[in-house]
Amino acid sequence: MKLIFATSNRSKISEIRARIDGKLEITDLAENGINEDIPEPFFTFEENAMHKARYVYNKLGISCFADDSGLEVAALNGEPGVFSARYAQKNDFSGSNTELVLHRLGQLANPSRAARFVTVIALILNGKEHFFRGSVEGNIIEAPKGNSGFGYDPIFVPEGWSETFAEVDQKKKIAISHRSRAMNNLVDFLTLDGKL
Ligand code: IMP
Q1: How many Cα atoms occupy the beta-carbon half-sphere of 172 within 13 Å?
Q2: Which of 49, 141, 154, 167 has the highest count of CB atoms within 10 angstroms of its CB?
Q3: What separation in Å is there between the alpha carbon of 81 and the centre of ligand 1?
Q4: CA of 85 to the centre of ligand 1 (A)
């Protein structure tokens, strides 16, 4: 069986391939002749992920899945959320996305620092739609720490840890990350469904 992962991100493709261990053929957008960036215009991770999956399914008629992720900060009413990739740009802020989160929290009196990373995967399998979610709870620290990872990793300390996601070996992050948890839920479903 062949499944398309509607992404152009090589590290996401390698991660899911490692989990599926060759039991399914997983190909990415470019390998299926899709070279454009599929827009993510909606206000929920579910809608954005399903929009990308439907785009591919309607075009090629092949079972596929897509993901959407982001950081939700409780004291910022869930922002940056679906705007995580372009938070600073969307708010005309001259610094980075991470700096904007710290700046916004700095404007509040004694804010909660609670936050979570979320990934939603939307799967269309033989025309039927399914969702899988993964999240990791943690806290936003006062100033960035660490150089590995990407995005908001330097300001996020997962619950029970003393280091940020950017201070640890990436294998340690992957073991508990929102993306891994969503992928595990997808793999469990495919296994139960007899596809793996
Ligand atoms: P995507 O949907 O996986 O492309 O993620 C959207 C945005 O969320 C990224 O551009 C990052 O800003 C943020 N993000 C998602 N996952 C992570 C993560 O594991 N670490 C840090 N930032 C992340």
Answers
A1: 14
A2: 49
A3: 10
A4: 6
Answer yes or no: are the C-beta atoms of 16 and 87 closer than 8 Å: no
Q: What is the CATH number of the domain that holds 96?
A: 3.90.950.10
What is the model's pTM?
Answer: 0.96
CA angle 9, 21, 6 (to 5 degrees): 30
pLDDT in tens, 29-80: 999 999 998 999 999 999 999 999 999 999 999 999 999 999 999 999 999 9
Higher pLDDT, 187 or 194: 187
| Alpha carbon of 194 to ligand 1 centroid (Å) | 31
For 11, the domain range is 2-192
Count of domains forming the chain: 1
> Tokens for 71?
């950081």
Q: Do 134 and 184 meet the contact criterion of CB atoms below 8 Å apart?
A: yes
Return the C-alpha torsion angle 59, 63, 69, 74, nearest 10: 110
Nearest CA to ligand 1 atom 9: 85
